[in-house]
């Protein structure tokens, strides 16, 4: 569904993304992880031409994205980010249905689709449909953002740290919801995060970026078995330490 060959972005002579190659099939999630400035978000935004590549080829379902007008391409691809990006002057239903409206869907079809998606992200339509988005919590706004990204049944979903600012319970719930959506809707997903635990939980494959290149690329199990370099190993140690600490807390106290 997504195919990239030699994807490159150069700013002022500096290669922010340097000739990366990857593919993402339907029903799969590729997680991009790395330090700030490693090229994760730039790579993601080149897929829907929010940033224009300097070189390379991107194909979505076999179609070269350069053959499409950028706004037409973006309406075919779901996109969500940490900031949610909701329109504050619109209510929840208007935000979710905005892209469908731009594509000329009939009002009745939009209303039905909005309710379907609000149910899917666990926001009761009767309670949330007409609410101003400015009255929602951060977690509720992220759910609305995810529903909007899925509104016109895209085949590709791009997510840039969408859960980073959420409390742990809400974050876990949305991670589980995303896993279900990828499977049920057969989506091809590219997901950017700084969090290795999140990458291991959500990714079918993980690309670790350093200086715009893939320093390591593989399944979560492959990275855990063979990190490949010390920087990747350092990222992987954090979730292991956390898991070991939790196990230690659950161990019986001496003498009991």
Which key features would you list for this structure?
256 residues; alpha/beta; Rossmann fold; 2 domains; six-stranded mixed sheet; four-stranded antiparallel sheet; 11 helices; 10 strands
| Alpha plus pi helix count | 11
Poorly predicted regions: none
CATH topology tier name of the largest domain: Rossmann fold
- Level-2 CATH architecture of the largest domain: 3-Layer(aba) Sandwich
Give the percentage of residues in beta strands: 15-25%
Distance between the termini: 56 Å
- CATH class designation of the largest domain: Alpha Beta
Amount of helix: 40-55%
Assign an overall shape: globular
Widest sheet: strand ordering? 6-7-8-3-9-10
Query: Can you tell me the CATH superfamily of the largest domain?
Result: P-loop containing nucleotide triphosphate hydrolases
Could you spell the SSE succession in H and E letters?
Answer: EEEHEEHEHHHHHEHEHEEHH
* Biggest sheet statistics: 6 strands, mixed
- Which structural class should the secondary elements be placed in? alpha/beta
Instruction: Supply the number of structural domains.
Output: 2
Mean pLDDT: 90
Radius of gyration: 19 Å
